[in-house]
Design brief:
Length: 457
């Protein structure tokens, strides 16, 4: 949040000219001592995992974790380029409810050397009105918002963070766990249901576990190495990742740059943070299908995603008929029953025999990989790596409106009531993180079981 605590009081004593000098010196230091990345805060969005679905999903629990082994903060700026702070950023778990609330479970983090200062924050916005069914709410940019600050605490790198929001007939519970330190707060927002996907009051209802500046729409310039995961609780009690995820938040007003985000194929819900090839679309993954004639009537189709062959995937082969349209719409392809259906081997390939002059191979896709096809006319092959399905999805995502919801000012913050740190429910949820040796599947199963047990208390 912009201008927190004593930092605001100190900065208010600095003259405008002195601030300019400090800013220029700091920028010069960045140029000389940090990677050559120019300030792009005007357009920087929050970074991490933003999950979405064009067919909304509904849940009573959203949770995620972030493990950061390397944290280097180079500075924090407002979007006009004004320097704000040299050590701070935020980790935010944000999700909408069906009744027009935007719930934020946030950690404000300041890093000096190996020491980390953490301030828990909760925000609840009414994105559709100027009132809230809570005491002591305020208004910010015409929207009702309830804001609370938890008690700051000290820890050290590396950081292991778990954030969780859950709802029941009694209200919404927001909790955190950081390197063994845990707490929660409970708000009497009864019968709320979280919505992931679709629109809430015209805004894209994404679920976010993201990194950004510390408030007021600020942008943090930092380098991170680690991993992050975000899931919701399905109706049958399993941890599920929504069908679509991008690396930039659609709602949070704060931004970040200086590190990249990618997601491993086959691990939907998981993102890697660091010096990777950056991906806007984390999942589903684009696929590539190619066709090659290797004999007079022998063909090979090869399927890849993220440059890796896909094994055990169904490929359909058609003998299409080409029809030349007379109304200027170009060539039309008519498909009938496939002449061959096969499954790719460990090299991502299938082989088949076909004598026609025109052949089309089609991959229908699955929950984590988009469809693709390849066509060959008289031996001349054409594939469509960024196919129509991928381009259509990217265009739809990029057409969504950025909500740009920023933290309120310090004057509206109130220390929120917290639960007992060593309550049994909190201990049960958080104790899994020091445990090593679990597979991802076992860890998720344990997490869901514990979460369900906690909800039943």
């Amino acid at each position: 949040m912009s201008g927190f605590g004593t930092r605001l009081k100190v900065k208010e004593r600095i003259s405008v000219e002195a601030m300019r000098i400090v800013t220029l010196v700091f920028i010069a230091f960045l140029v000389l001592a940090t990677p050559a990345v120019s300030f792009s805060g005007t357009y920087a969005l929050s970074r991490g995992i933003a999950e979405y679905s064009f067919n909304p999903v509904y849940t009573t629990q959203v949770f995620g974790w972030m493990n950061l082994s390397v944290v280097k903060v180079y500075g924090e700026y407002f979007r006009n380029g004004t320097f704000l702070d040299s050590n701070s950023f935020s980790v935010q778990l944000n999700v909408y409810t069906t009744d027009g609330l935007w719930v934020q479970d946030v950690l404000l983090i300041s890093v000096v050397g190996n020491e980390v200062n953490v301030t828990p924050v909760i925000n609840v916005w009414n994105v559709s009105g100027s009132t809230l069914p809570l005491e002591n709410y305020t208004a910010y940019d015409g929207l009702a918002v309830y804001v609370g600050l938890g008690k700051p605490f000290l820890t050290s790198l590396p950081l292991r963070v778990f954030l969780n929001v859950s709802s029941s007939s009694e209200g919404i519970r927001l909790s955190y766990w950081v390197n063994g330190i845990s707490n929660f707060t409970f708000l009497p927002l009864r019968n709320s249901t979280f919505q992931i996907g679709g629109l809430v009051n015209g805004l894209p209802a994404d679920a976010e576990l993201v990194i950004g500046g510390s408030g007021g729409g600020s942008v943090a310039y930092l380098y991170l190495e680690g991993n992050s995961s975000l899931f919701y609780l399905s109706h049958n009690g399993t941890a599920v990742a929504p069908p679509i995820a991008i690396s930039k938040g659609l709602s949070t007003g704060e931004g970040a740059f200086g590190f990249n985000v990618t997601s491993p194929l086959g691990l939907e819900g998981v993102a890697l943070l660091g010096n990777f090839s950056d991906n806007y679309l984390l999942w589903p993954h684009p696929s590539s299908l190619s066709l090659k004639r290797v004999g007079s009537d022998l063909w090979v189709a090869r399927l890849c995603a993220d440059g890796e062959p896909l094994k055990g995937q169904e490929i359909e082969v058609y003998s299409p008929s080409l029809q030349v349209s007379m109304n200027g719409n170009g060539t039309q392809i008519s498909l009938v029953k496939p002449v061959f259906v096969g499954y790719t081997n460990s090299s991502g390939e299938i082989s088949f025999r076909y004598n026609g002059s025109v052949v089309l191979a089609y991959y229908p896709g699955n929950s984590s990989v988009l469809p693709s096809f390849a066509v060959s006319v008289k031996g001349s092959s054409s594939s469509n790596y960024f196919n129509n399905a991928t381009n259509e999805l990217l265009n739809k995502l990029k057409s969504l409106k950025w909500a740009n919801l920023s933290f309120p000012s310090q004057s509206s913050h109130k220390v929120y009531p917290t639960g007992q740190r060593n309550s049994q429910a909190a201990v049960n949820v958080y104790m899994i993180y020091p445990v090593v040796g679990y597979s991802l599947a076992a860890l998720l199963t344990l997490l869901v079981a514990i979460a369900l047990r906690g909800r039943g208390r």
